[in-house]
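User: I'm writing a tutorial on reading structure tokens. Could you give me a worked example: one chain, its sequence, then its tokens, then a sentence or two explaining what the tokens reveal?
Assistant: Sure. Here is the example chain.
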Amino acid sequence: MDGINANAREKHSLFVCTSCASIWKNGKREGKSGGQQFMENLSQLAKDWEFSEKFNIQEVECMSACSRSCAVSFAAVGKYTYLFGDLPANELESAEAVLECAGQYYAKPDGLLPWAERPEPLKKGILARIPPLGN
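And here are its predicted structure tokens:
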């Protein structure tokens, strides 16, 4: 495997729904959504995060978790994919917990995140744990 493909396989993704907690009026979003605020908080904290080079933090327009916003997901090749919701948009503690849990995810070869080891905000809001694709 060449260096580019090896690097891509090692990279992890942290997806953040930016349409979560939106206010809609006449079919148009008004102001900044909770998801956009969450993304801003996460991006600010990630500047000094030890795993910032290991993760692509990506905005996603919708993750179909509207009733459980704000939503984030961890994904990597060969690992379980997780989708979490119920994260308050305006609490830095939520964004800190997401980065802490992402670091745990990175350290696990299979990506499995035992409930007892997760930060408190990510114990209650699990929406999905999807097995890795077969090789």
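What the tokens reveal: The beta strands are 12-17, 23-25, 28-30, 55-60, 72-75, 81-84, 126-130. Residues 54 and 73 are 15 Å apart (CA to CA).
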